[in-house]
Amino acid sequence: MQSGPSTPDNPPRPAPTHALDGRPVTPRPSIDVARSPANTEEALVVKSRAEGLSFYYGAVRALKDLNIEIREKRVTALIGPSGCGKTTFLRCFNRMHDLTPGTRYQGRIILFPDSIDLVDKAVDPIEVRMRIGMVFQKPNPFPKSIFENVAYGLRVRGLRSKARLEEEVERALRRAAIWEEVKDRLDNSGLSLSGGQQQRLCIARALATNPEILLFDEPTSALDPIATARIEELIAELRDQVTVIIVTHNMQQAARVSDYTAFMYLGELIEFDNTSKLFTNPSQKATEDYITGRYG
Amino acid sequence: MSEASEGHIFKATDGALSDLRLRAHAMGLLVAEQVETAVRALLESDLEAAQGVLVRERQVNAYQTEIEAESFRLLAQRAPVASDLRMVLAVSRAVTDLERAGDESKKIAQFALASAGHMTGGPSRVMHRSLRHMAELASEAMRVAVDALDRGDERVAHDVARLDRELDQEFESALRQLMTVAMERTRLLRPIFDTVFALKSLERIGDHAKNVAEHVVFLVSGADVRHAGRDLPARGSQH
Fold first, then answer.
1. Nearest-CA distance from B239 to chain A in Å?
2. CB atoms within 10 A of CB A124
3. Which of A161, B55, B67, B130 would you label with A134, given CA atoms 20 to 30 Å apart?
4. Alpha-carbon torsion B98, B103, B107, B113, what sign?
5. Do residue B8 and residue A292 have CB atoms under 8 angstroms apart?
6. pTM (2 d.p.)
């Protein structure tokens, strides 16, 4: 993890008023978070905003006019029953649906600070995926060495220098809290690791390209409680460095790791609020029924 | 806030939550009865009634232990959220207040026993009216609060605050009267002191009833109104 003195490889965390690449974020709208005492110490900025986002699988409208603001360097959880569209929504952020024929986006997902529309066909999905990483439900390391798993994205980006690659791979593995466990066996297959380690390797792989947003699609559903706790701890640590959106079926996980929670149902956004508010006193009956297990 | 639908998909959760609520209600009714019996024992020098209060006090304590253990288990095993979580917290907070109101009834009963045994001469006759009036207010406040908790009725909770206010005023005026009596009839000092303690117990019971009502507001709306001033704020103003 990034801790201790800063070095060229381990720069001090930029102030929240700047993006990861150091660009000022002044043009971005700020959000009134006065309701949450925990969030009053700083003005939060919007990292991304879905505007009237609908999504179609053929004729089926899976997302219905979503409007939601994702706060920078905060964890946003998407919850809701199976089929509510939370994973579909998550996948829009890095254009995963482009690979499925017959799908169609409507509306926009604006990425700040450069205000590009992530679902605009004119925007290169490869570039989108460099800036918005994803970690899946099942750990899916490449059948390559641990080192190559992490180096892959960097090579795609055109990084050739062996020394630079080694530096960046170590940095990503450290950020994913797995360096100490794998530093002596970087040439071993990624598949030789335990499930929890494989998932952290996948997180390191996603972190290697310095994404601005990291998407987690039920990242711990295949893991035991200890491996789950490690991933949750990792998400808590990453919170300072990258914007996180996580889909989870585990209510307690959403309550533990996220700052904001969005409850979705039948492709619609029902409620979006501070996680503490949503889990103690939700405004919508549907949210209340779902999180308390009364869903009919 | 939103009202939750009736039943949980996992039926055992319904059972555990309603059991908690039923037990809290039973405890509340018992405490309200303890208040009434203790005061009757005092006013009518009814030894048997006073003894009964002391015996049932053990039952009040047992309720507290049981309900808190059950709340603890519920939190650990069912991880309730939203209205369910507020229910568990409100009930465990209410139980603490109910138990303390039970303690105050015990003090009144002990005083009744002591005065019946001619140890103190009983409460001054002139104070009977104040005692009776305060006892009525205190037990009504407790009954209304317990009922509000059972029904999750925030509106009724506001009535408790009014009753508590009346109790406080009655206590102040009783103290003034007692002061006058004490100055005129110094040989009655002991019974006057005892009466003051009994009145103070009733005044405290009113406070506990008001606390229970505040827990009801938290249960229903999620608002913490415990330190919001003398009166419970109007519905919805604490969000």
1. 9
2. 10
3. A161
4. positive
5. yes
6. 0.81
